Amino acid sequence: MVVSVSSCPTEIIQMIAVAADPTDLANLRLVSKQWCAVSSRLFGLANLRNPRFIISPYSLQGLVDLTAHPIFGPCVESVNVGSYRLKKHLVNTQPHLDINHANAAALKQFRFEQTASHLTLLAQAFANLRDHGVMPMLGAFEDIVHLAPNNEVVRRGYGYDELYGPIDVLKCGNTQVAQTLVSLIEASLNSDHAPSGVSVDVKWDPNDREAVSLHSGLYSLLYNLSIRNCGCLKSPKDLTVTLTSGKDKIRNKHHLEIRNKNSHLRLIRVSIEGYEDSIFPQLEPGIFGPLFDACYHGQFHQITLSDCEIDRSVFGLLKTHARSLRHLTLHQIVFHDYEPDDAVDLFLVLRDDLALYTIDFERFAFSNKHSALEMFREDHGYQPFFGCGQVVALLSGLIRWVHIQNTKLRRFEDDEVHDHNGHDDGNEDGEHYDYEYEGEDEWEDEGANGDADRDHHDYEQSND
């Protein structure tokens, strides 16, 4: 008979640990040795999958110790290193002179990197991950996201305070994203352990039409890593460019992600528009570098657009992959239909120019200066459609429905007065599209099985 929580069977303890809030796992590990053994791996998966470090002896030794740990080491999925270095003019090699903290920190970091000691520790960490059977992503991130005076976000990797202390790194340092990524790749080669992919996380200022191209050497490095001379993708590695436009929160992150191993392109909070004044970064070379070219030269089997703003410009992207694209996910999309036929043309492209086997909707809206038209609303949840016949029937129904609604609401006429959502005053719920397929019973079981493996959730940023 169980008389206390601490004496529960291991299976029960594991169920409790799985159900616990991630923030409580640290405390659960203190209950007993048995609870510690069960909770430690869950704690590692919740907090240590994407750890951040900096170029310093203390920080990278921490990486080595983490990856050597028998429980926490296998939890590591990516190794991310900060790109900032203290400026070399702060390095003072004359011992008879009084040196301040900035000079001492700069000297420590400079010698550590010049002697390639950072490569030794990184290679040791990658060797530890190899022993665990982990192929990590290699990531370089900007420690400081600086968008305007007094608008700075500091992302402290492990050991940041130990090295920098009170130093204003923005004033005393500079960012070296390409150099950081080169060090990670070189250390990976030295350890004879190939990474699963490469990622960069840099700032994006909404007032600037550049991001990747602002960093010396980064464009050419990403190009050499990802693109062949013919323009097609070079390797089966994953590639990700993340742009951070403010505080280190999900809503301020914009992603272009290529999962080469399963031929999947994901765009999250990105603008695919001819209109230049978007709140999201536009899909163009100056912002996303050579991964922009990869979007149009790769042959993707699956494309996911999540929380994006698009217009007719997206037609070119979709048609580029007409021969290979079979799965399309549209999640929280706003399509700006400036002309009466834009919305209809979108569904015609999806129906007639592509050969989709599945198409998934969750909250999709058309918007112009006159009104908005919403379908697959958020309260409807996730709407997957499987099978070529069902997809074609769905798109044909959408084409008819959009024609009817444009006429009914007179969406492209200035003299019609609507409420702020573009809906008739008598319809409090607004106009939306509800689709019912004749063969619903036949495909529902298939959808239930197939949907479990589908990656339709928003990008998760771990260990921020």
Helices and strands in order:
Layout: H1 10-19, H2 25-28, H3 33-47, E1 52-53, H4 57-68, E2 78-82, E3 84-86, H5 101-114, H6 117-132, E4 137-141, E5 144-148, E6 151-154, H7 160-164, H8 169-172, E7 173-175, H9 177-190, E8 197-203, H10 218-226, E9 238-244, E10 253-259, E11 264-268, E12 271-272, H11 285-288, H12 291-297, E13 302-306, E14 309-310, H13 314-320, E15 327-336, H14 342-353, E16 358-367, E17 372-375, E18 383-386, H15 388-409, H16 440-451
Parallel strand pairs: 1-2, 2-4, 4-8, 8-9, 11-13, 12-14, 13-15, 14-15, 15-16
Antiparallel strand pairs: 3-7, 5-6, 9-10, 10-11, 16-17, 16-18
Helix pairs in contact: 1-3, 4-6, 6-9, 14-15
Helix percent reads 25-40%
In DSSP terms (H or I, runs of 4 or more residues), the helix count works out at 16
Q: What is the CA-CA span between the terminal residues?
A: 42 Å
Q: β content, as a range?
A: 15-25%
Shape: globular
Low-confidence stretches are: 415-430, 436-464
Largest sheet: 14 strands, mixed
Helix and strand content put the structural class at alpha/beta
Radius of gyration: 26 Å
| Overall pLDDT metric | 80
Number of strands: 18
Biased composition (Acidic residues): 436-448
Biased composition (Basic and acidic residues): 415-435, 451-464
InterPro entries: F-box-like_dom_sf
Region (Disordered): 415-464
